[in-house]
Design goal:
Elements lengths: L2 E8 L2 H13 L5 E14 L2 E15 L3 H11 L7 E6 L4 H11 L5
Length: 108
């Protein structure tokens, strides 16, 4: 089983909570951590922008990442939301097993 962490930025804490709750309820992810406020600098429409955003880290299995991306895109307010997945190479086996049980099931 390959595990993944998905990094998602949102416009604010309310949007982060709504997206995180939906992903957990649909069992696309086992857990979501929300960082209520980050400062982001980025190019958009030919100029550098600086905005306050919220950040979500979700834990899942690689086979669910495409579903996570599609669900976030449906729920997100941004035209091009930042959604990036990272595979997990090592971790607490009990925690990783728990992720698998929550999003795949005990037979997974």
């Amino acid at each position: 089983m390959v595990y993944s962490v998905v990094y998602i930025t949102t416009s604010d804490i309310e949007e982060a909570r709504r997206i995180a709750k939906t992903l957990v309820e649909k069992r696309l992810v086992a857990c979501a951590n929300i960082v209520p406020e980050i400062e982001s600098l980025y190019w958009w429409e030919g100029k550098i922008n600086r905005e306050k955003e919220a950040l979500i880290f979700v834990k899942t299995v690689r086979e669910k990442v495409k579903n996570v991306i599609e669900e976030v895109k449906k729920l997100h307010s941004y035209e091009i939301p930042a959604i990036v997945s990272f595979d997990v190479s090592e971790g607490n086996k009990n925690f990783l097993d728990w992720i698998s049980e929550e999003v795949v099931g005990k037979e997974g």
